[in-house]
Amino acid sequence: MPARRAEAARLEERAVEAALAIADETGWEGVRLALVADRTGLPLEEIGRRFRDVEAVADAWFGQARLAMLALPRDELDGSPADERIALAMERWLDTLAPHRRIAGQIIRHRLYPSHPHHWVPLVFDLSRLVHDLLDVARVPGHGRLRQAQEIGLTAITLATLRDWLRDESPGQERSKERLRRRLAGAGRLALRLHRQRPRR
Hints:
By secondary structure, the protein is mostly helical. The protein has nine helices and no strands. The longest helix is centred in the N-terminal third of the chain and has 25 residues, at 2-26. The model has no long low-confidence stretch (mean pLDDT 90).
């Protein structure tokens, strides 16, 4: 079983690399499973067994970025306030995607086309999972209404940051990261103020 899982992981990595290389040349709209098979030298049947369509290849790429974020060493977060920990986690996710940032934008815009409603609901769930992962990596405590408020606020910040990041031509997208940190710091101050104003029983 471990050998089989390792082989599946290698196939996924090769397919993702091939798809990104094709997208660099033609744009994401030009990526096809047959072209991925040709680029990797693998049978189309093998690629199709692992990926139902090119969107599944894109999901695998975003999945790699998620795992890189989850692998953020805890000792890099310990001792930092919650907003800083969330910023570090989100930056790890963005930096993993950054070498192909233009393609990431193409994939997201492709999924938001009015003619692609079948992509909208999965996109909402993907965003929700990302927000939960960010809170988990950053070890942000919360439950009940507090957790709901954290998720709503971080969802808004994530969407705004992603919009900025896709347009950011500054070195390392530092401008969008600075805005991310300002938004998180502002949200933290607001949460603290609301907590102090909460009536005590």
